[in-house]
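[Automated response] Your request has been received and processed.

Submitted sequence:
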Amino acid sequence: MELWGRMNNIRFTYKLKGNQYAVSEVIGVILLIAITVSIAAAVLFYVGVFMEDDNLESPPSVSMTVDVSEDKSEVSITIIKISESGISWDDISGFLFDLSTGDSVLNSSDLGLHNDDISGGDTIRINAADLKTGNFIVGDNYRLSLVYDNTNSIIGSVSWIH
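Generated structure:
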């Protein structure tokens, strides 16, 4: 095979011996396969690292009901059901918000949560005198949210209009 070309009006000619042109094609295919395999291995490694969930803990969930006293001075929140047993009140934080104003009116230290495990039938009582505002405002919308401290996620919330 003979190749020729022109450069600055000078003619040059090259002669290839045998099957030399196939060498670069084989090396190219091998390099492409090697690059593809290494990229696939790297992606698999990173996906595997991020998909490990041995240390992840899913939070329990809690169902609650609300009962407002006739004189509107106390609210009783009753735990109906919890999805896991053996969860201690020590692992729970509670926050009461007045959704009408956007203010936090009570935090977990004032809720009187006890040291036992949570179970159906447990009651949280909130007196108006315990609130930062000193009383419930009739017509305002309130929400109590319970947070599982181990995962820092809300496990249950209940809302009511006072």
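Summary generated for your ticket: Residues 22-51 form the longest helix (30 residues). The radius of gyration is 35 Å.
If you did not submit this request, please reply to this message.
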